[in-house]
Design brief:
128 residues; mainly beta; 4-stranded antiparallel beta sheet; 0% helix; 62% strand; globular
Length: 128
């Protein structure tokens, strides 16, 4: 069996993408699972593909497990971490966000059967 996960694109516009992710764990967890594939986001009005995103806002609720969001690289780089058994929101738009050169991966830590997370990301899209 595997964790029951969902990924939902709430908005994928010219400049902003908003995405929601959920997980109900069976105890197996997630390890560096690609959740934001920038090449799958909509192109801009000139037809240029999205090449990277900037994290500007994060909302979350975790029960039982913590979650790391990493920048996908040859060696992944931590972007933000949500502690176990917490709810919160963080806003990075006061300083133009946390820049990234590619995709975003999620990893769960301390997961056990029945643990959950809900994470919503607001991202600014960059092109070419």
């Amino acid at each position: 069996m595997a964790d029951v996960v969902t990924s939902q694109t709430i908005q994928d516009g010219q400049r902003i993408a908003v995405m929601k992710f959920t997980n109900v764990s069976d105890g197996s967890g997630e390890a560096a699972v690609k959740k934001v594939d920038v090449s799958a986001l909509n192109s801009n009005s000139a037809g240029v593909a999205c090449s990277s995103v900037v994290i500007v806002k994060v909302w979350w609720a975790t029960t039982g497990m913590s979650v790391k969001i990493d920048f996908d690289a040859s060696t992944n780089v931590l972007a933000v971490s949500m502690p176990a058994d917490s709810t919160g929101d963080e806003y990075y738009d006061d300083f133009s966000g946390i820049p990234n050169n590619g995709d975003l991966d999620f990893t769960t830590l301390g997961h056990s059967n029945g643990d959950t997370y809900v994470i919503i990301l607001e991202l600014i899209k960059n092109y070419g």
